[in-house]
């Protein structure tokens, strides 16, 4: 079993919809959680960074961490065609520098 | 600010040739990471450095792969001899301690 599980999709939604992307993980030692966005032929770009449990909001994006359920989410409000990309969750534990990535979810926003 | 810079962006070479990928991390970052990305396996960490010293190379697939970081602003990943199964996108990333990693745009490697 992988340490981090993420549905690879693809996920296709109409413009303006609310998008929910999720990851589950098995290692309770993970404390730092990230979401990266990767456009085609580009490197992963940091979107959200959270420590421990709770919510963090940045514009149309909200990251949510539920450590009790070992579950993290990324919500995109008012989705735009420019949000079409692959979204990767990533996490690491205190004292470690090795990021563990999910497989990535390919998202398409249809105009 | 300049981000992580990788070169070349694309490399096509024949099986058996030596391949050298280059990376310039973000100035001041003390961690540097090399990853490989494929459709089948996703992002895989190959090796990472702290203050130019290799810390963990457990992800390096075979002895054909080697990485160096001669100074704080430059690192190389070398494959010798290259094989078709090495075809992938190779990313370099850098960071401060316990901070998110910042990625370059990768080198797309094709071994014929």
> Largest protein interface?
A-B, 19 and 23 residues
Helix coverage percent of residues of chain A?
under 10%
Gross morphology of chain B is globular
Rg of chain B computed from alpha carbons, rounded to a whole number of angstroms: 13 Å
Biggest sheet descriptor of chain B: 7 strands, mixed
Can you count the helices of chain B?
Answer: 0
Element string of chain A (H = helix, E = strand):
EEEEEEEEEEE
Uncertain segments of chain B = none
User: Approximately what portion of the residues of chain A adopt beta-strand conformation?
Assistant: over 45%
Strand content of chain B: over 45%
What is the distance, rounded to the nearest whole angstrom, between the alpha carbons of the first and last residues of chain A?
Answer: 37 Å
Helix and strand layout, with pairings?
The complex is a heterodimer of chains A (111) and B (112).
Chain A lengths: L3 E2 L5 E4 L4 E7 L4 E9 L6 E7 L2 E5 L2 E6 L4 E6 L8 E9 L6 E2 L3 E6 L1
Parallel strand pairs in A: 2-11
Antiparallel strand pairs in A: 1-3, 3-8, 4-5, 4-9, 6-7, 7-8, 9-10, 9-11
Chain B lengths: L4 E3 L2 E4 L5 E6 L6 E8 L3 E9 L2 E4 L8 E7 L2 E6 L8 E8 L6 E2 L3 E5 L1
Parallel strand pairs in B: 2-11
Antiparallel strand pairs in B: 1-3, 3-8, 4-5, 4-9, 5-6, 7-8, 9-10, 9-11
